[in-house]
Amino acid sequence: MRRRTFLSLCCVSAASLLPGLAQAAAGNSGHRYAMLVDLRRCVGCQSCTVSCGAENAVPLGNFRTTVSEYVMGGVPQERRDPVVAVVPRLCNHCEKPACVPVCPVGATFKREDGLVLINADTCIGCGFCVQACPYDARFLNHETHTADKCTFCAHRIAAGLLPACVETCVGGARIFGDLHDPQSVVCRMLAAYKGKVATLYPEKSTDPHVFYLGLDSYFTHADSIPQPLPITPVRRS
Ligand code: SF4
Ligand code: SF4
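# iron/sulfur cluster complex -> structure
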């Protein structure tokens, strides 16, 4: 199945195509969106990072998603090169998001379809949610002066499209879909790899809905992961 047509088969309702906050708050009820990142297929090319930035007008130096690189410990002495792990990072659209209850004005909210979003009209930029997120998935946008993060490209979902990062992933490592549709690729893969799929920091009890296949056990506990390598600054010509 072509990925571009995938979401059009997810019964996107006519109502979901309407703009407006009321619709945005409800989302596509009856669905539960999630992503599976198949790390066996990620080549660390950052196509997802670039396409997300362009799609969502993310300011330079900020990221709604990026692929972090980590030098892993325990490298055998005889190996010359360090082992580098690549882990695409983004908002996990948690079932129990730590960012929601701390927002003093209700600007951060979770939709019925699982998307955790920010109402930029009411966000006061206090940054409580940025501090509360255990995954460092949020930032304060210095252009809008509001909290910012991945939305799973909610505007593209509403138009029956896949998130930009999924559409442009050269390795097909990012798989997005509806957990309420047993025929969706994400559902079938989660079933096929049951017991081999992990989430980041399950001990935080946020119930993340970005799943990883092939995740090193280092990453399943917040305190054990190595520091990511510094991001190379983008140079303007
Ligand atoms: Fe909130 Fe962070 Fe979970 Fe995203 S990853 S829903 S920002 S707690
Ligand atoms: Fe809420 Fe905005 Fe403050 Fe985050 S920065 S807690 S979304 S008001």
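# post-check
The chain has one domain: 3-72+83-224.
Confidence is low (pLDDT under 50) at residues 1-23, 233-237.
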